[in-house]
Amino acid sequence: MQRGGEKNSTQRWPRAGLLLGAAVFLFSGCAYFGPDTVHGNRNPYNIAIQKTSEEQMLLNLVRLKYRDTPFFLEVSSVATQFTYNAGLAGAFTHGGDISNIFEIGPGGEYEENPTVTYSPLQGEQFVKRLLSPISLETLLLLYNSGWSVERVFELCAQRINNIRNAPRAAGPTPATAPQYKTFKRLTDLMRNLQIKDGLDIRLEHPAPGAAEHQGSSRIVMRLAEQGEALPESRELVKLLGLLPDKPFYVVHGHTIRPDRHDHIGIQTRSLMGVLYYLSQGVKVPPADIEAGKVTVTHTADGGVFDWDLVTGDLLRVHSQTAKPDKAAVSVEYRGHWFYIADSDLTSKTTFSLLHHLFALQSGDVQSTQPIYTLPLGG
Asked: Which H helix or E strand runs over 86?
């Protein structure tokens, strides 16, 4: 009898041990559930938000081309809840004279419930920042961050001294061709000097005892020593109407008097002006042009003006009926697909700069009601 009891006891313990081991395996696996969830879900959310932000920006450029009202909807928060219902599944087989068999294994169900909150960017504070001129400090920040001076100034500057950069393009598409050629030459000279280390724009403090701007910082443009001997620097000084051989030129955010030949006045665009300016590079379907849905710009002799001459070295947005296969960003609007080609590195670079400008200008604007909260999944 004693041996029989020992035999039954021996059969029970492995089954209990198997049950305990399965439970330990199941719940110890949950310890890695959290990190694995972050690894598997953070990047898809990151990619989705970045992609839709680019689509929204492109959509608003196309809207402005059609003189439609732009609208910005910000993803203010993404919250997700993960649920895992764990359990154990088992099966018992009785084999007569053969030893009893008890099988057990883990089971469970994984569920994700994300919630995305959208906030419209509107109200007085946002509109003021949208319509306020971009500061010279912002231009300086972009310049010192490695952006091309040509790209930054063509995008953000409306006038430098008496040289205009298509000022009416900073609004709805004008009916007549803009002034732009001299400004293009100016920024081309500045870019060549930047590449040759012949141009330096910086924020500095005047020397102690200086009569002008005492105790305040100022933005200056210097032509480096190696730049002074370059033909680009001499042409640049002549175009801007400056006195040659000056050690530096003070940069202001307002118009300079004609007699101030050692100062440079830069009139900047607003963020809305930049958006309108870039919207001139949107190619709309011929049918929409014929239907009068967009403004056609004419030259002095009555021909159709090509906006590629102004914005073609910054941004090109194409359109077609079918969804494009190779696009960096695309959006459907008014029955057509508008897109930036993935191989168009120039347009992609400008589009990236536009996002930086938008972030700098909009700042930490408090979103206004209503706030849209959408539960995803089901």
From this structure: strand 72-93
Contact of 119 with 367, CB cutoff 8 Å:
yes
Please give the pLDDT value at position 45. Answer: 77
What is the C-alpha to C-alpha distance for residues 171 and 356, in angstroms, rounded to an integer? 21
Name, of 37-41, 156-160, 220-224, the range with top average pLDDT. 156-160
**Does residue 66 sit in helix, strand or coil?**
coil
Give the CA count within 13 Å in the CB-facing half-sphere of 269: 26
For the chain, state the CA radius of gyration.
32
Instruction: Output the CA–CA distances (angstroms, integers) from residue 8 to 20, 45, 123, in the order listed.
Output: 19, 56, 79
- Give the pLDDT of residue 362: 78
Scan for tokens 């919207």, then name that residue: 279
Collapse the DSSP code of 324 into the 3-class scheme (helix H, G, I; strand E, B; otherwise coil) and give the result. Answer: coil
Query: Per-domain residue ranges for the chain?
Result: 139-269
User: CB neighbours (10 Å) of residue 243?
Assistant: 10
